[in-house]
Amino acid sequence: MNIRKAEASDAAAIAAIVLPTIRDGATYALDPNMTEADALAYWMATDKETFVAEDGGVIVGTYYLRANQAGGGQHVCNCGYMTNVVATGRGVARRMCLHSMDHARSLGFRAMQFNFVVSSNERAVRLWQSLGFAIVGRLPLAFRHPTAGFVDAFVMYRHL
After folding, report:
1. How far is CA 7 from CA 40, 63, 69, 119, in A?
2. H/E element holding 21?
3. Is the pLDDT of residue 68 over 90?
């Protein structure tokens, strides 16, 4: 698997990954009716570095990295990860997270924070914990899951 910085020509492949996840409404606090243009503008915004994971020349995942805060908090980064549904369970998210931690360190970030991990996304919670992230905050019933109703969201944090 190869992970590289995304290019404008990757937009259609990125949209094919992020739109189904956004439409599903179960893991990201984004409008499920978001247009493709808005989804790409969000995922590939100028305040983010966007990457893609390729397997055999096919883009199977994408992530972004950005400073979580400005000023006194700019040493902590934030990331978002999405994997193509056909690549689920193949270690793509793990590889992207490991890549993002290495890249963040190279940029001088000292920690990584996930601001809103939906608690019912148990697979992601277990993955982040296996990579050294701790749940440092719980937002009670902060996310309206499309089938489970209101569920908690976690703030997860890891020193780099």
Report:
1. 12, 13, 25, 32
2. helix 11-24
3. yes
First to last CA, the chain: 23
Q: Could you tell me the CATH number of the domain that includes residue 100? A: 3.40.630.30
- For the entire predicted model, the pTM comes to 0.94
- Residue 118 Cα to chain centre, angstroms: 12
* Closest-CA residue to 26 (of 157, 158, 153): 153
If you average pLDDT over residues 74-103, what whole number do you get? 94
- Cα dihedral 69, 99, 7, 34 sign: negative
Segments forming the whole domain that contains residue 117: 2-159
Residue 55: HSE in the Cβ half-sphere, 13 Å Cα cutoff: 14
| Number of structural domains found in the chain | 1
* pLDDT value of position 88: 83
